[in-house]
Specification:
Blueprint (H helix, E strand, L loop, with lengths): L8 H26 L11 H22 L5 H21 L44 E3 L16 E3 L7 E6 L4 E10 L5 E2 L1 H7 L10 E5 L2
Parallel strand pairs: 2-4
Antiparallel strand pairs: 1-6, 2-5, 3-4, 3-6
Keywords: Signal
Protein name: Secreted protein
Organism: Streptomyces kaempferi
Length: 218
Amino acid sequence: MSRRRTLSPRKKLALLVSAAAVAGGGAFVMATTSNAAPVQNASNSTVCQGLATALGNNQTFIDGQRAKPDAQSQARIANRDAVIAQIKVQQAASNCQVGESAQGPQAAQPAQPAPSAPGKQQTTAPAQGAGGGAATGRQVCAGSTVTLSGEGGAPAASSNQFPAGTKLKVTNLDNNKSTTVQVTSVSGSCALLNNAAFEQVREPGKFLIRRALIEKVG
């Protein structure tokens, strides 16, 4: 006569836990995934739009250097490749789509004031802010957004419209902060601020200045 084996309560509990893990593992993984924050992009996040525009500006610069290379092009491209890598790190940290590039940063921008009548130089009241001073000048690049280049060093700017040595005053109209910087290199946009200059006019947590006033002051 065979004897039926009786499992202890502890072993029964262990078997039940193991069976539940096998049967419900997929559901558990799905539930965990569904709770993760969705990845943002330039269309629904100002932070992501700013980073995507900064990446696009640097890519445009690289494309220009490759199209018309000179003796310094390889060094410039290597520098901007490193900048793009850093921007991708910032995209990941901000839960943005890594590698997203926004071209044409001046599209779909808020309407700008109508230009002044011919023969009159357009000027604006001085905006007070970090490093802004009281200098005013001719408004340029109306409608442009301003992003950061990701480069270090003292406050400076790069531009695709003004030669090195030009002084530009950039005002963030959303917080009335401004900075006056010198153009030191070429980029893919009207005014691209390096990290130090951008910190002087940025809003906390943002990588894009939507309402920017750019003036040529020297």
